[in-house]
Amino acid sequence: MKKDNCIFCKIANGEIPSRTLYENERFRVILDLGPAAKGHALILPKEHFDNLYELPDDWCSDVMKLAKKMAAQMTEKLHCDGFNLVQNNGTAAGQTVFHFHMHLIPRYDNDGLNINWTPGNPAAEELDAVRALICGE
Ligand code: AMP
Ligand code: ZN
């Protein structure tokens, strides 16, 4: 299903032009208009899913296979030195367009791009408590 007034539905289905790198029955891969690095691209499903929670399992496996294929092609052609896959869900996580997408971000030695975090240093009991919370124990 498409969603009215969703810009990524329109781009994915070719109603709004984009710089398409690849397309198949389920997905379109486009260049990001506000790239974090040279070659930054997005995998967009042609159906509307708000986020990862809504993405069906078979689409999940397809998106990861496609990410792998694109990463290989882009690394070969762009000669990048590394690669990040980034996928944001919810405003708190930095999602700004509420149609599932996977960022493909080529990385270059010393590119200065900041998608890092400062590691925490929790006590063992805290890690145990979080584990119990997630696992329902
Ligand atoms: P996120 O913050 O994970 O929701 O990522 C949204 C991404 O979409 C950002 O990297 C934007 O630069 C990119 N973006 C927004 N509108 C467009 C557009 N019309 N075409 C291509 N990329 C877009
Ligand atoms: Zn959409």
Strand content is 15-25%
- Residue-averaged pLDDT, rounded? 97
Radius of gyration: 17 Å
Q: Any ligands, ions or cofactors bound here, and which?
A: adenosine monophosphate, zinc ion
Fraction of residues in helix: 25-40%
- Helix vs. strand class: alpha+beta
Q: Gap between N and C termini, in Å?
A: 38 Å
Order of helices and strands: HEEEHEEH
Q: Main β-sheet, in a few words?
A: 5 strands, antiparallel
Shape from CA axes? globular
H/I helix tally: 3
Labels describing this entry:
5 strands; five-stranded antiparallel β-sheet; alpha+beta; binds adenosine monophosphate; 3 helices; 137 residues; binds zinc ion
Describe the structure.
The structure is a single chain. This protein is α+β, with helices and mostly antiparallel strands. Helices cover 29% and strands 18% of the residues. Strands 1-2-3-5-4 form a five-stranded antiparallel sheet. Strand 1 (20-23) and strand 2 form a beta hairpin. The termini are far apart.
What is the fold's blueprint, element by element?
Elements: H1 7-12, E1 20-23, E2 27-31, E3 41-45, H2 57-78, E4 82-86, E5 102-107, H3 124-135
This protein binds adenosine monophosphate and zinc ion (ZN).
Summarize the model shown:
With 137 residues, the chain is an alpha+beta fold. The protein has three helices and five strands; from the N terminus they run H-E-E-E-H-E-E-H.
